[in-house]
Design a protein that fits this description.
By secondary structure, the protein is of the alpha+beta class. It is built from two helices and two strands, in the order αββα. The protein is elongated and about 70 Å long.
Length: 83
């Protein structure tokens, strides 16, 4: 009976801590996107493309390996974990 009361008291605190951690993580992602969209144009003199048809690696063009702006900005993101 006592353990049931203890769980009932701790559960809201645990959920609140998880929600706070999720908000912090989300805010960090938004901050990183803001930094990326300021740094990308400084390096390439343009914003990332909306999409592209192929990739050039070391001067070799690979067709049919299309991607999006999210792929283009990976070099500018902190890569603690890949999404």
């Amino acid at each position: 009976m006592q353990s049931c009361i203890l769980v009932a008291l701790l559960l809201p605190a645990v959920q609140a801590a998880r929600e706070a951690a999720q908000r912090t993580q989300c805010a960090n992602y938004r901050k990183q996107y803001g930094i990326v969209f300021h740094n990308y144009p400084e390096r390439w003199n343009r914003f990332p493309p909306g999409s592209f048809e192929g990739v050039s690696v070391g001067g070799v063009w690979f067709r049919g390996t299309g991607g999006s702006w999210q792929f283009s900005i990976l070099l500018f993101m902190e890569q603690t974990q890949l999404l």
